[in-house]
Amino acid sequence: MVDRKDIGSWLAGPDTSGISKYPGERLGLPESGPGSIARAGRRIVAIMIDWGIALLISNFAFSADSWATLAVFAAEQMVLVGTLGYSIGHRIMGIHVVRLGGAPAGLLAGVVRSVLLCLVIPAVIFDPDHRGLHDKAMNTVLVRR
Question: pTM for this one?
């Protein structure tokens, strides 16, 4: 015999109590404004700015060699994110990289994030909090300023 509770729970749909309402909620970050997760639009424009800068430098210094462009991009990410917490594109778009808890990212995080970012795949695989594998590997998050 079928219990009424079983049918009722089935008709109510899946349990959504463990699902976040917005990216960053599980991390204790606000839904919007400073300190909230940087959304995809800001991230994409920031990386396009950084790649454009790398292309310009590579064009003038290395005859637009594609490996040189990648190296310039990686160096910019390593140095700027590792020391300041943001690249030029991040700064223009009003976002920066911090460790969970708000501490600066640090040099090691800048290097590891940059290497994984250059591999592309870790950056495009992300969790519900919009943290790519490169951020998860270093326990960092990209937030709005």
Answer: 0.85
